[in-house]
Amino acid sequence: MSFQTATYLRKATSRAKSDVANKMVSMFLHDLRRKVNALLGANVTDIAYAAAVTAAFGNSCCYCNRSLEHDRAAVEHLEGMNRFRVGLHIQGNVIVACKRCNGEKRRDDQQRELTLAESGWESFLSHDFTRCPAQCKTCAYWKALLPDDVQRVDSLKATRNRIHEFRKSYPEALGWSRKTKPALQQTLDTVYRECQEFATLRIRKAVDEVFEALSKSVPV
User: Fold this and answer.
1) 86: phi > 0 → left, psi -120 to 50 → alpha, else beta; which?
2) How distant, in Å, are the alpha carbons of 54, 56, 57, 69, 163 from that of 159?
3) Is residue 198's pLDDT more than 90?
4) What are the φ and ψ backbone dihedral angles of 149, each rounded to 5 degrees?
5) What's the pLDDT tens digit per position in 160-178?
């Protein structure tokens, strides 16, 4: 099938106001994590936390276990920092992944409802080609990395267990995040909707003002 240029351009154009709203949601979550970190007296930049991440995952991607290189590493939020997963930049939720896994995981992070697991990271690691439709892109990603069916199931399960064990060391931070998630989801839905409305109306007003001014000064 040939590339659908018109469809791609249409999608990119309609995404603008959602990008603005998503950024505002991210800013909200970052501001909230500052208060949480101050309350707990802990931060992901602490030397001890960096040592714990290294001890658990070494210099490898937390998901695929491939060696990390500086230009292909990404700070990874196990629970994504968006209005669906409501993750925070706190200890126990921040590790390091390769950019490919970081990008692939977004398909799960951006789903309002997950079917394979309760969390975005665990759902991402549950695409072992046994429970999804044949056209699942995430299953295809893991199948390309781990072609053997038995090895793929075992490897993804082992990775889920390793991350679970790592997170057990941060019950206070993750517990605080977990108990506030239902209320935060409602708040973030409101923030997202209001930001979309604001972006649409404010930009339209500014454009109209600029266009009117330019129309009077620029000869036709």
Assistant:
1) left
2) 15, 11, 10, 20, 6
3) no
4) -60, -45
5) 999 999 999 999 999 988 8
Q: What sign does the CA torsion over 34, 36, 38, 43 have?
A: negative
As given in the structure block, the two tokens for residue 24 are 């505002």
Q: What is the pTM of this model?
A: 0.85
Residue 103: what pLDDT? 95
Instruction: Please name the residues in contact with 176: beta carbons below 8 A apart, sequence gap of 6 or more.
Output: 36, 39, 40, 90
**If residue 41 lies in a helix (H) or strand (E), which one and from where to where?**
none
CB neighbour class for 129 (10 Å; exposed up to 12, middle 13-18, buried from 19): middle
Phi, psi for 68 (deg, rounded to 5): -85, 140
Strand ranges (E), the chain: 73-77, 94-98
Are 44 and 65 within 8 A, CB to CB?
Answer: no
